[in-house]
Amino acid sequence: WSKLVGNVQDHIAGLNFGYKGELRDYSITYRNALASLTGTPHEVSLRDKQGKTSTVTAKRIVVAVGGRPRALSCPGAELAISSDDVFQLSNAPGNTLIIGGGYIALETAGFLAGLGFKVTLMVRSILLRGFDRECVVLIEKDLVRRGVTILPHCTPAKIEGAASSSSSAAAAASATSGRKSVTWTDEDGKEATADFDTVFCAIGRDADTSSLGLADAGVTTNRSGKIVCKEEQSNVPHVFAIGDVVAGKPELTPVAIQAGRSLARRLFAGSTVGFDYRCVATTVFTPLEYGTIGLSEEAAEEQLGAENVDAFLSKYKPLEWTLNYYRHEESAFAKVIVDLRDDRVVGIHYLGPNAGEVTQGFAAAMRMGLTFTALRDTVGIHPTVAEELTSLEVSRSSGAPIEKGSC
Ligand code: NDP
Predict the structure, then answer these.
(1) For the chain, is the Cβ count within 10 Å smaller at the N or the C terminus?
(2) Helix (H) or strand (E) holding 186
């Protein structure tokens, strides 16, 4: 564990060193300070680590403060760690309770179970809300097969530690060491209690804007503190925002990067093209990786009408798993959702090896208006897992079996 943590921290330090170097290369002044907008237009106050304050002015201000992990609201919430802490633990996490059912919860459950830790996943509603349900069921079965215990429809009622404590430093210390007794409630209101070495909370992230002085500067935010923008511009013309701090946009790092590039081109390079948020591909890095672009089957049926939609499916064995002792019983899964009225592909879903790599290029094709005929006319690369997406034949409406042999 300590070697893993050391390597991760070294990698992050290397990345940060690289970013600082790039800033220097472009003659960008870097100030390590806490910023807030003052009431004076174009003015930002900066407070450094020593508490010294100064002000800077700028023609334009871009807010890109991202989010912070949301904390639980039950007693003992401070005894839970977040994804910010996990790779800083000096001791291995041991028997771990993960609370949440989103990307972070499932990815963490997958890698901790893979490292041999006992993992329990507590989910208040469903796993991966908004994703294609058929795919999510396959991920859930795979996690269970790997030894993850899932507690559905349960919410934590309290967490008690060896030293439930008054000082925040002591609380932080006890979050990373000592047994925690967790009591939770199921959907019938029944309570249960169990002990864990680590409680890991991944219930979403909140915009970190409360101390940014946005209200003083007249910047409109929504109820969760995110900045309301039109094309990355807030209601105050010289204040812009990119990334997770923007209301109503996908919370994904590459989305923030692309939004920033697009904004820079419009502000400084004469572009008039806004950032197109359609067909953003994303991957959930669970042990059975899941890459997805566009609509889930449920969303397609709801938005386009069930009678206008069909899904083409295949469950097949990737060649690289056929001879793999650990995975030879596992299958990949591919689903392409088509709008039958114009043959347009409105959703691509793939579960299997290298899902991020597989789905990336298909996102470009979908952005260009990919049709199912064009996809099937594409020559596959044999014997890859992605090839299957070019040769899907069995439709949901046919009711034919979707299981195939090795690719
Ligand atoms: P998500 O928004 O993905 O999921 C939050 C989960 O927590 C949901 O299952 C939600 O359940 C549950 N939840 C919310 N509030 C509570 C509560 N009070 N008690 C119990 N459960 C609760 O958040 P994550 O923290 O997983 O990830 C944060 C962001 O980071 C995501 O938006 C994601 O885009 C990004 N990310 C992307 C990755 C990738 O691209 N591979 C990897 C990791 C993170 P319910 O459905 O009931 O609301």
Answers:
(1) N
(2) none
